[in-house]
Design a protein that fits this description.
Blueprint: H1 2-9, H2 15-29, H3 33-53, H4 59-82, H5 86-100, H6 109-123, H7 131-139, H8 149-159
Helix pairs in contact: 2-3, 3-4, 3-5, 4-5, 6-7, 6-8
Length: 161
């Protein structure tokens, strides 16, 4: 029954999800176990999230699920590094590389500094206590999903007194 539901809704799914499903088939045919396992896990996470939230699978859901998976693996890598488990760090890095193919590039470097500078100017913030105003402006941007707010937080703190 679950397969019928998945197959039935394939026609209404996002192009990103269709690409993910096609890449799973390609990886399986190529006998690329690392890629097929990673993509199957991502597929299951997308389907689980869609069922849990009772929404159709669309590009936004796929992107959010992939971002969460990459963030979780990056967080896990910090802990694995502390524990000296370089083998697990390397395995996660391979998975992250595979999943990042589906994610748009994050805003970083000089472009991020310009955006933060504009947000600080727009908010009129002068101290670290007003950091929430700056973050609010940044989160309301149309391209907010491309911003790494962990990096932004450090950048804003360094620019405010």
């Amino acid at each position: 029954m679950a397969e019928e539901t998945v197959l039935f809704s394939l026609s209404t799914m996002s192009t990103l999800y269709s690409s993910l499903r096609a890449d799973i088939i390609t990886a399986v045919k190529a006998r690329d176990s690392a890629t097929s396992t990673t993509l199957r896990t991502a597929d299951a996470a997308v389907q689980r999230t869609a069922m849990d939230t009772n929404v159709e699978i669309d590009d936004a859901l796929v992107l959010a699920t992939m971002r969460k998976a990459v963030k979780n693996m990056n967080d896990a890598n910090k802990e694995f590094s502390k524990a000296g488990r370089i083998d697990l760090v390397d395995a996660n890095k391979v998975e992250i590389t595979i999943l990042e193919k589906y994610l748009p590039a994050q805003i970083s470097g000089d472009q991020l500094a310009v955006i933060v500078g504009e947000a600080i100017a727009k908010s009129g913030a002068e101290s670290k206590r007003e950091m929430g105003k700056v973050m609010g402006i940044l989160k309301s941007r149309a391209d907010a999903e491309l911003i790494d707010f962990g990096a932004v937080s450090k950048l804003v703190q360094s620019k405010l007194i």
